[in-house]
Amino acid sequence: MTDLPKTMRALVIDRPGTPEELHLVDLPLPVPVLDELLVRVIAAGVNPIDAKTRSGKGVSAAITGYPVVLGNDFSGVVVRSPYEGFSLQPGDEVYGMARVPRTAGTYAEYVAVTALSVARKPARLSHVEAAALPVAALTAWGMVVDMAEAKPGQRMLVHAGSGGVGHLAVQFAKSFGVHVTATGSTGSLDFLRELGADEVIDYTTTRFEEQVHDLDAVIDLIGNVYDNTGSRSLSVIRQGGILVNAPTGSWPTMAEEAAAAGIRATGYKVSSDARTLEGISALMDSGAARVHIDRVFALAEGAAAHHLVEAGHTRGKIVLRVTD
After folding, report:
1. Inter-residue contact 77 to 109 (CB < 8 Å)
2. ω into residue 19 within 30 of 0, thus cis?
3. pLDDT-derived band of residue 4, with 50, 70 and 90 as boundaries?
4. Which of 51, 102, 230, 265 is the most exposed place for a label (fewest CB within 10 A)?
């Protein structure tokens, strides 16, 4: 396509700070190189890492200059393809993950992204639903399938099971035949059951270590940020089992404590992988898993979206609608 605009609207920050640092500007369209596609972004997911980076934490140490376009998740339409024979061509609906700040992010009308991070959008999902998936779904898949090696008969505990990563981790584990216990607040217990959790634990009233034991795996999406959840989880894992923790920094002493308890433990950092996204698409299109959208904001309302993410207790995901 040759009739593209010269500029685009983008939500940027000029320096680290509060959500109010996010503001709209006009920027030149990104220029795709080598295997990159140029995608018109219809919707962009909002993740905790976006808010952390905006505040000066997260991956902000890798920022080399401002303004910066944040956002990793996107769903949209290809407008330029790397070459004529490439499998994705202009007009194709796709979703995927950018690599902020190595590249400009997805809080913008267009994004250039490597083909290794893009897959066809699940056919049964809207662009808003698809944009909520990449970071959370790839994280959940990596923790549950790659690290914990989900399989039939396994017993797994998912902390924060109603959150963005957690609600997908519960469903992915169930799709592999795992017996899943999930923790959540009082108001999220029915939601967790709807996702397929075999057992639910209200963390506000019940100590999970009094309810479960000898588990094969714990998917720890809290760490010691709240009530030493990570440390307490070591006691419910069988010898030879594994604890998989995210996000980064939520439990700095994990390695030492796990070693002392004789339990395998590892952190996890998301990998943007098109083939894994294709597998996730198949699950979504088969109806074996779904993504839950908590709130949708306009691009100009990015600050409100970041405030909501930082407040915590989001059920599912928050999404920015970028273009029509």
Report:
1. no
2. no
3. very high
4. 102
